[in-house]
Specification:
Structural class: alpha/beta
Subunit structure: Homodimer.
Distance between the termini: 54 Å
EC number: 2.6.1.9
Number of helices: 13
GO biological process, one term: L-histidine biosynthetic process
CATH topology of the largest domain: Aspartate Aminotransferase, domain 2
Keywords: Amino-acid biosynthesis, Aminotransferase, Histidine biosynthesis, Pyridoxal phosphate, Transferase
Catalytic activity: L-histidinol phosphate + 2-oxoglutarate = 3-(imidazol-4-yl)-2-oxopropyl phosphate + L-glutamate
Shape: globular
CATH class of the largest domain: Alpha Beta
Strand content: 15-25%
CATH superfamily of the largest domain: Type I PLP-dependent aspartate aminotransferase-like (Major domain)
Length: 347
Amino acid sequence: MVMKLARKQVQALTPYLSARRIGGSGDVWLNANESPFDNEYQLNFSRLNRYTSCQPEDMIKAYAAYAGVSAGQVLTTRGADEGIELLIRAFCEPGDDAILFCPPTYGMYAISAETIGVERKIVPLKPDWQLDLTAIGQNLNDVKVVFVCSPNNPTGNLVSKEDIITLLEMTRDKAVVVIDEAYIDFCPEASVVDLLAEFEHLAILRTLSKAFALAGLRCGFTLANAALIEVLQKVIAPYPVPLPVEEIARQALSESGLARMKFQVLDLNANRAYLQAGLGMIPGVKIYEGWGNFMLVEFPDGDALFKATWDNGIILRNSPIENCVRISVGNREECEKTLTFIRNYYQ
C-alpha cells in the first residue's frame, strides 16, 4: 500500500547498488575504492548542543587553499553525492529539463536525476572512453547539466582536457558542465580547476572519501565561481556539516594532514603499479590504464573470476563492461593476496 503512495518515478526506481548494499563476506575488501589507511583524529564533543554554520569558515578556507581557489568558490556538502543532487535540483526543472552523462561512468548522476524527475540523456563514451563531442552536441536540447567524470569510474582513464574545453565552449550559456574529480588527488596535475577562471558555468566535484581516507566522514566539496555557488546555497540544507565532520576535515587539511595524505597516495600508486605489473603477466588478462585508487581489468571470463574471488573472501566489484572487474587498490598485503589468488585461478 505504501509503495502505491510513492511518486511514480520512485516506484520505478532501481536504487544505486553501492558496495555495502551488495554485501559480501571476507577479509579482503577491494570493491568500494576505499583507502586501506585508518587514520586517527582528535574530537572535541563540547559543542554538540549547538548547530554548526552552514559553511564552516575555517574548513572552507582550508580546502580552498588546498584546491588553489578562493573561499568564495567552495561549497562543502555531505559527500560529492549531495553535490550531484544539488546541481540537478538547482538547475533542472522536473519534466522540462534534462541532464546528460556518458557511460560507462558513475551511476549516481542518473539515479539522482531520476529521483527528482529529470530526464536523462545518454551519450556513450567512444571506444577509447573519451567524449563523443559530436554526439553530445547533437543531444544538448533541453540539457541543463552535463556530467563528466575524470578520472572516470569505473574505467579509470582521464578525459582529454582539450575535449573538456571544447565541451565548455559548446555549452556556454546553455548548460552547467560538472567535472567529477573524486579521484583527482591521485593525479592532481590533471585537474581542470584552472579552467574556473575562464568558464563561469563549470563546477568541479571533490571528496575526502578517497585519497584522504575519509569515506565514512561523508564530506565533499563543489568548486565553482561565486555566482554558481550562490545558486547552490539556495537549495542546500541549513546545517549540512556535523561538528565532528568539520573538526576531522580541518585536521585532514592541516599541514600535517596533507603531508600524510600525499605519502599515502604515493604508497597506493605504488601498489597499483604492483597489481598492474603482476596481473599483466597472466595470459589473456588486459589491464586498462588507470589514474585513481582502482583499476579496471578484463579477464577471459570476468563473471566467473569475480564469483571465484567473492567465494574465497576477496571482494572485488563486477563491472557493466563485459568480462571486466574493478579492483580497488588496497595495502600491499591485500594486493599480494588478490594477485596470488588470480594467478592460481588461471594456472
